[in-house]
Amino acid sequence: MCDALRKEGIKATLILDSAVGYLMERIDMVVVGAEGVMETGGIINKIGTLNVAICAKTMNKAVFVMAESIKFVKEYPLNQADIPEEFKYRTSVLEKGDLSVEHPMVDYTPPQVCCLFRTWKSFHYKLLRCFHFAK
Question: In terms of Cα–Cα distance, which of 55, 56, 65, 54 is closest to 119?
Fold first, then answer.
């Protein structure tokens, strides 16, 4: 995503997840992708997205989510435990059966920390239900 933004002339910097807290005070906004956009306005994305979004909210930075409209789904997770295991882990990990030593590949970021959604059609504010799911 960072390269695509740069090609469009948008100044973008890719930073390490572990450097988010240190660098957050110097940035203008956070842009993340999403593997899924829930009807509630929360997102499922690569692990660490929740940490970045919480840090951004704490420091009053906007969090923009960029996702194709096909990724908008009628799901209602309320927390990390509500994400089905087949989305959190690779098939090879699930086949082993012991998830106690594994880390999930995705996390759930609640709508309270996401400001704006961008699809190829338009900008969607938090009222996703009215804008997309009513169709």
Answer: 65
Contact status, residue 106 vs residue 35, Cβ threshold 8 Å: yes
Q: What is the pLDDT along the chain (135 residues), one digit of tens a residue?
A: 788 888 888 888 888 888 999 999 999 889 899 999 888 889 999 999 999 999 999 999 989 888 888 888 888 888 888 888 777 877 777 777 776 767 888 999 999 888 777 766 655 555 444 344 444
DSSP 105-128: SEEEE-GGG--EEE-SS-EE-S-H
Total number of domains in the chain: 1
Rounded to 5 degrees, what are φ and ψ at 23?
-90, -15
- Which two tokens mark 127? 């009222």
The CATH number of residue 118's host domain is 3.40.50.10470
Tokens coding 57? 């909210």
- Alpha-carbon distance of 26 to 95, in angstroms, equals 44
> Global pTM?
0.77
Closest CA to 15 of 1, 79, 91, 7: 1
